[in-house]
Amino acid sequence: MFRKTRKTVLMVFCAVAIVLIGIFGIRYYLDHVRLPEIAPRQVVAEYFEALKGKDYKKAYSFISLRHYNNSYNQFIDRVSMYSPEMQLEVAGETIKGDTAVVDARVVVPLQFGPYSSYSNMDLVRVKREWKIIHP
Q1: 40-132: CATH topology
Q2: 35-54 residue pLDDT tens
Q3: Most CB within 10 Å of its CB: which of 37, 58, 108, 124?
């Protein structure tokens, strides 16, 4: 009788272990292996659209807080002077593992002609989202 109980407990323990391994394996896959649904170039485009629309809370949500040390208020002070007429042109993106670089050109119309600036925006994958490292 003791052997049967011991065998049952061992089988239950193995079943629970298999279920837990499966759950954590799926969670790890979803968080670390499967690519994010929104591409880095889309993240940068949505970030600029939020800035143009003065939706600073949404723009701030695209930033990797692990890499950006300024507060939300400091962020607003910095980006509130951006022109709502600025245009973003994404030239390309490069993805290497959990990092990405988006090549972008920002054009701001000025009184004496447009000003353009080329920039590389670095992004990092945080779980299932791309986040901008240095806005």
Answers
A1: Nuclear Transport Factor 2; Chain: A, (3.10.450)
A2: 557 899 999 999 999 999 99
A3: 124
